[in-house]
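Design request, tokens follow.
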């Protein structure tokens, strides 16, 4: 077997054509390393290594080896003299690169007849997509005469921009089924009625009364017509007072309505009672921490000014058991003796009710109420034989429609 004249370039060979001691499996004195796989302790070839016969020589039955343990000339790529076979694809008779190999010319250079190569071994202008000057062929699909994107290419419009009609046929058009419900009317009118207090009061030092506090509205999400009413009536003599408000409300902030309208008060007694009207401006809504707030300023027909502030909170003890504290305060700028109203702070009412919601529409409750009058209002109460301070046990129902 003949070694290549360039054997020194073979991996594992040093400059003097000997085995390179740095090659894996070689020891420092350029002999075979006995620890290399396939080597026995005396640094000879291990006869048990695949391809080795019993005498530690090359096994003639190993693929590519002839009977004399030499390289088999019939091995692919080997000629009869165990050299590189010139008939091997890509090899000529002198073991050089075959000029007939695809892509090689007679002088072992790139064949100009190779697809994509011109006579000067450059890119072939006849190659698909190449023009005569070896540039992009304007006849290539998608290329126009001035090497820009062809406006006739699918997806391109006349001004080399993306065609707005591209994939328009693939878009999904909404299909309206015959059985689909009608669109939701976003200006639908709603109605709401709440009997927040509809109760019997057993007063400790006075006549028992029946009290109510009703709030209702009709309208949409932004504008509503409000109706409010509250009052009391004695269960023995039938005396009492009532108040009704008719208001227009407009949403001015999340959860808050600005309200304006009129209010009318009426006092009931055996001899009849006076009444008076007010103009009203107020605000009502849900404050932070879920406090329900209602504040209003009143101007009477006699130009008397008064104000009221009320608030309540819903404390959920369970999904059905709810504790509801509430407070209300009234003030006035002028004294109106006919209605037993003094200037300044008129009265303060605190209440606490525990209700059980049988359902959202019906909730029976029990609780307590405390009322205290102040200043000139307290003096008017004493003069009429009434009490300044009242405490009552209450029981009733909360209704929602």
């Amino acid at each position: 077997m003949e070694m290549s004249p360039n054997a020194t370039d073979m991996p594992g060979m040093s400059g003097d054509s000997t085995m390179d001691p740095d090659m894996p499996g070689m020891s420092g004195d350029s002999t075979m390393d006995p620890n290399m796989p396939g080597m026995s302790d005396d640094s000879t070839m291990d006869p048990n290594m695949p391809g080795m016969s019993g005498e530690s020589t090359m096994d003639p039955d190993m693929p590519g080896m002839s009977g004399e343990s030499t390289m088999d000339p019939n091995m692919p790529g080997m000629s009869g003299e165990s050299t590189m076979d010139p008939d091997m694809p890509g090899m000529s008779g002198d073991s050089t690169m075959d000029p007939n190999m695809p892509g090689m010319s007679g002088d072992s250079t790139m064949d100009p007849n190779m697809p994509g190569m011109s006579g000067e071994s450059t890119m072939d202008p006849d190659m698909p997509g190449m023009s005569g000057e070896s540039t992009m062929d304007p006849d290539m699909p998608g290329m126009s005469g001035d090497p820009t994107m062809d406006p006739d290419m699918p997806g391109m419009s006349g001004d080399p921009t993306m065609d707005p009609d591209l994939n328009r046929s693939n878009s999904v058009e909404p299909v309206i089924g015959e059985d689909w419900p009608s669109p939701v009317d976003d200006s639908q009118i709603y109605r709401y009625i709440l009997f927040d207090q509809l109760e019997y009061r057993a007063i400790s030092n006075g006549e028992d009364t029946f009290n109510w506090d009703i709030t209702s509205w009709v309208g949409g999400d932004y504008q509503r017509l409000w109706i409010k009413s509250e009052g009391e009536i004695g269960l023995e003599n039938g005396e009492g007072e009532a108040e009704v408000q008719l208001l227009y409300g407009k949403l001015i902030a999340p959860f808050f309505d600005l309200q304006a309208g009129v209010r009318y008060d009426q006092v009931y007694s055996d001899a009849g009672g006076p009444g008076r009207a007010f103009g009203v401006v107020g605000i009502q809504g849900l404050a932070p921490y879920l406090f329900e707030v209602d504040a209003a300023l009143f101007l009477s027909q006699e130009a008397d000014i008064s104000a009221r502030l009320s608030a309540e909170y819903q404390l959920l003890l369970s999904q059905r058991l709810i504790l509801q504290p509430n407070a209300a305060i009234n003030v006035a700028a002028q004294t109106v003796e006919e209605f037993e109203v003094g200037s300044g702070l008129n009265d303060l009412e605190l209440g606490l009710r525990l209700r059980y919601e049988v359902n959202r529409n019906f909730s029976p409750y029990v609780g307590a109420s405390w009322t205290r009058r102040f200043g000139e209002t307290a003096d008017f109460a004493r003069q009429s034989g009434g009490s300044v301070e009242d405490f009552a046990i209450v029981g009733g129902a909360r209704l929602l429609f």
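Comment from the thread starter after seeing the answer: thanks! The mean pLDDT is 73.
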